[in-house]
Design a protein that fits this description.
By secondary structure, the protein is of the alpha+beta class. It is built from 15 helices and 15 strands. It folds into two domains: 10-353, no CATH class; 410-488, no CATH class. The strands form four sheets. Strands 1, 2, 3, 4, 5, 6, 7, 10 and 11 form a nine-stranded antiparallel beta sheet that branches. The two termini are 50 Å apart.
Length: 497
């Protein structure tokens, strides 16, 4: 693992794992607390259950869910896929489920090293606006994008209705305006207009909760992409990393030429473009500039991700830090009109502003027993009761978990079925790989006493090959590979005996 930070050559990862206990150890990663993915649970003898009757004795309280943050720069090279495969396999061994990729409570954040430069900031925003719906479609990793169920509150778009709404001295405003940022004359003015970041230096600030987050560039030297669902597929994740690398390299290349800055055409996620047009935008930009194998994987992801899942409501949304049910507004007031450094008045939002749908463990403390049960399960729209009486009984919580799109229930069913199919394919691949290794080992053993032209089994007189007094085989006979049991090919064994 590299210990050198190279601009555009190394990444950092934040892996949110809602199915794993906090004691999980992953080489090269530190554990971090994240309230948005914590689930209360009970356990005994190191075994944890999410649902255990309260009257059972001897059970201890545990927490499921942790965030794993890489501690060393990860080089972007040909070994990246194998590295990610090893790390994701470890998470799977700890209990991370593939089906959790359908959850609205967790994601993967990709950081790539980037320098502080005003022109570079503008190029990043320009290309980000141009490829916004591309990244949202990729963010589903072949499943429904999680933003459809939580107003994408942890990864808001940066265009049109996207940036979170906050309080300013002048009234409600977006935490930044793209056009105002692109008109900044120096880096200090840019940072001031970018969520008043010169004054708000806490970790949890509204400006960071967009899919393309520039704040870490100033604080730690990396550009953050927050748009991705969690996934157990290392091929998908590595191809996305190579796209992120191309993205930054393209912005750096344009920022250091002598041409006048020119904003690219905006393709907002709120434009509701057809999937074919979004895929064409990706191909037109990266074809010939990233390897074909990565481009084919990216197109495969986009074709599998349901287009309805990235069609967010065309309405402004408050920052979730303003409307927390237990902690209230923790954001403060932005852009005081008494500020002397810069004279800046944001555009005031007079349209309707929604309270976001979001979840964390702090919020659940105020829930009833029924609400907690629903809140901490993998909520799927098909299980949500529709009656008015039930809606009235559960109050605001019903609105929290209900999607506004009629297509979402079937959408999630289709995504879950695809996840099951991929799981069966992975099992089949494992079985085939085991067969090949067995065949190779048999062939290698047989080569010590002759050539083997097919998969064979041997009968020996004397002791086993490999022992000190082994003798050559007296007979070699061809046999067919053994039939694998039915449970290798399906999720559940057949009922018939």
């Amino acid at each position: 693992m590299s210990s050198v930070f190279e601009t555009g050559k190394t990444i950092g990862l934040e892996l949110e794992a809602p199915d794993i206990r906090e004691f999980c150890n992953l080489s090269g990663f530190n554990r971090a607390h994240d309230a948005s993915i914590i689930t209360p649970a009970k356990g005994k003898d190191k075994i944890v259950w999410e649902k255990v009757p309260a009257n059972l004795l001897g059970f201890e309280k545990y927490s499921l869910g942790t965030e794993l943050v890489s501690t060393m720069p990860i080089p972007i090279n040909d070994d990246l896929e194998n590295y990610l495969k090893a790390q994701l396999s470890t998470l799977f061994a700890y209990g991370q489920r593939e089906e959790t990729s359908l959850s609205n409570r967790a994601g993967i954040h990709v950081h790539i090293t980037a320098p502080v430069n005003l022109r570079l900031f503008k190029e990043i925003l320009s290309l980000g606006c141009h490829l916004e719906d591309v990244f949202f479609l990729l963010g589903g990793f072949g499943n429904a994008h999680r933003g459809i169920l939580n107003d994408s509150i942890y990864a808001r778009p940066i265009t049109k209705f996207g940036p979170p709404i906050i309080n300013s001295d002048y009234g409600h405003a977006k935490v930044f305006e793209i056009d105002d940022l692109l008109e900044s004359k120096d880096i200090d003015e840019f940072i001031y207009r970018y969520g008043n970041s010169n004054r708000f230096r806490d970790r949890y600030v509204p400006v960071r909760y967009t899919w393309l987050n520039l704040l870490p560039i100033v604080r730690q030297g990396s550009l953050e992409f927050r748009v991705f669902n969690i996934t157990q597929n290392p091929i998908y994740l590595s191809s996305v990393v190579f796209l992120v690398k191309w993205f930054l390299e393209k912005c750096i290349e344009k920022s250091y030429n002598n041409e006048k800055f020119d904003k690219l055409k905006e393709n907002s996620v709120f434009d509701y473009r057809d999937k074919e047009d979004i895929i064409k935008t990706l191909v037109d930009n990266v074809e010939g500039e990233i390897e074909d194998k990565h481009l084919r994987v990216l197109i495969d992801i986009m074709e599998k991700t349901p287009i309805e899942s990235i069609r967010l409501k065309r309405v402004f949304v408050y920052s979730h830090l303003m409307v927390h049910p237990t902690r209230g507004n923790s954001t403060g007031t932005f852009w005081h009109n008494r500020d002397e450094l810069y004279s800046y008045k944001p555009k005031i939002i007079e349209d309707k502003i929604l309270k976001p749908k979001f979840s964390d463990s702090h919020q659940a403390k105020s829930f009833t027993k029924t609400q907690k049960k629903n809140f901490f399960s993998n909520i799927k729209p098909k299980n949500i009761p529709k009656s008015k009486a039930k809606k009235k009984a559960e109050g605001d919580f019903y609105d929290f978990i209900t999607s506004s799109e009629d297509e979402v229930p079937q959408l999630y069913e289709d995504a879950l079925e695809r996840s099951r199919i991929r799981r069966r394919e992975q099992v089949q691949e494992t079985v085939d790989s085991a067969r090949r290794r067995t065949e190779e080992r048999l062939a290698e053993s047989l080569r010590e006493y002759g050539t083997a032209t097919s998969f064979t089994a041997t009968t020996y007189s004397g002791s086993t090959i490999g022992s000190s007094n082994s003798s050559p085989p007296t007979e070699i006979r061809n046999v067919s590979p053994p039939e694998m049991p039915s449970y290798y090919y399906s999720e559940e064994p057949d009922d018939e005996e």
